[in-house]
Amino acid sequence: MRRSFKFLLRPTSKQAAALTQCLEDHRQLYNAALEHRRTAYAKAGVAVRYGDQSGELKHIRADDPGGQGRWSFSSQQATLRRLDKAFAAFFKRVREGRTPGFPRFKGRGWFDTVEWPKDGDGCRWGSQPEHPTATYVRLQGIGNIRVHQHRTVKGRVKTISVKREGSRWYVVLSCEDVPAEPLPATGAVNGIDMGVASLVTTSDGEHVANPRHLAMSAYRLAAAQQDLARKKRGSKRRRKAAARVAALHSTVRRQRLDGAHKAALRLVREYDVIVHEALNVAGMTRRATPKPEDDGGYLPNGGSAKSGLNRSIHDAGWGVFLTILSHKAEGAGRELIAVNPANTSRTCSRCGHCAKENRLTQAVFRCTACGHTAHADVNAAKNILRAGLALRDAAEAA
Questions:
Q1: 189-214+244-397: in CATH 3.40.1350
Q2: What backbone torsions phi and psi does residue 162 show, to the nearest 5 degrees?
Q3: I need a labelling partner for 248 at 20 to 30 A (CA). Which of 53, 285, 298, 368 fits?
Q4: Helix (H, G, I), strand (E, B) or coil at 208
Q5: Is 160 helix (H, G, I), strand (E, B) or coil?
Q6: Is 190 exposed, middle or buried (0-12, 13-18, 19+ CB in 10 A)?
């Protein structure tokens, strides 16, 4: 398996300044490469590729030895590949008829990651001879940076990335050949229904609470954002105010990740088979479509209610939870099945009758055919489990 390990860096003030400059130089390289592609196509109709720009790197480094020349050649190649992937995704969206989204220039604060494609090429992970009990990562042009390694790195380190999140710096190790650690079989199966009132409801009737971290921090975030709006652009006070807003968002993100890890680990430990809905979170949180009138106005489209629901879904972190659950299930040797969520909340888990009227409220389900009454989310979770087991049986019989 391939897994990523993320650790907090402990750079000195000089190293933090060097890391900041490294990001800035790679950002400028990205923007220059983008401008090169745009200009070549606009002026001469020539499509510039990654290989062309990578071949020019040695001349760029030679002309700027104190800037671009001091960083790793391979990390700069990775930045050019990043731009190439952005163009590949753009052309794919064009072919599929979606909104193209042409690659954009990266402003300050929108380029926060530098990657080294190979351990040992401009970077080195591991303990140093002079500090055998401490872990460091060595980066070309910066030196040995101390790492707060809170767990053991498993597998073979493939790529090393440095990421800035607010005022913090992290190193991300992408490792190959990470051994699986199967958990003992429990013989239990479960279906889970994602929700807003409860993050997860299981077919056994258990509810995992939705902490609503963003809603809990809404007052402090609003105050911090209002304070930011009052600051003069380009001033030192505005930069400090922006850092406070970023720190609050970072706290919410870490809280959400922590809760998702704990909830997913508990499910993986208790059940051999976990069935969940195949949710299109991006589609579910898309803004409501406007309804224009002939006189130039717009009809009510429920946009306010939809925006509130979208905010609640993002706050719950369905996509984050399902991604973490998938990774943990794979590592533990558990089976994870995704099923079509259509009508799972309207179908009676006892008799199979499907009707909109079965769902009385957000929490109450009462079948109009057989009179079965249950918690609506528990009823949906049972339908999800049944659908998942049917898919598994069909796959085994094929």
A1: no
A2: -115, 130
A3: 285
A4: strand
A5: strand
A6: buried
Question: Residue 130 pLDDT > 70, yes or no?
Answer: no
Residues 6+ apart with CB under 8 A from 87: 37, 103
Please report, as a single letter, which amino acid is at residue 239.
R
- Structure token digits, residue 51: 């290989």
- Region of 30 (left: φ > 0; alpha: ψ -120 to 50; beta: rest) is alpha
pTM for this model (two decimals): 0.85
CA distance 208 to 231: 41
pLDDT digits (tens, 9 = 90+) for 189-231: 999 999 988 999 999 999 999 999 999 999 999 999 999 999 9
Beta-strand runs (E) in 11-130: 113-116, 123-128
Rounded alpha-carbon distances, angstroms, from residue 52 to 36, 82, 90, 116, 210:
11, 15, 19, 20, 50
Max intra-chain CA distance, the chain: 80
**CA–CA distance, 198 with 209 (Å, rounded to integer):** 5
What is the pairing mode between strands 123-128 and 131-139? antiparallel
Residue 8: CB atoms within 10 A of its CB come to 14
- Give the residue carrying structure tokens 């279906």: 191
What's the CA gap between 348 and 358, in Å, rounded?
Answer: 8
335-339 and 273-277 strand pairing: parallel
Give the per-residue pLDDT at 292. Answer: 82
**Residues, the chain:** 398
The residues pairing with 192 across neighbouring beta strands, listed in sequence order, are: 202
* Beta-carbon contacts of residue 382 (< 8 Å; ≥ 6 apart): 191, 203, 349
Position 169 confidence tier, pLDDT thresholds 50, 70, 90: very high
CA distance 207 to 200: 6
Domain boundaries, the chain: 3-176, 189-214+244-397
Average pLDDT, rounded, for the chain: 91
DSSP 157: E
DSSP state of 366: E
Q: Give the C-alpha separation, 312 to 284, whole Å.
A: 11
Provide the token pair at 77: 């190649």
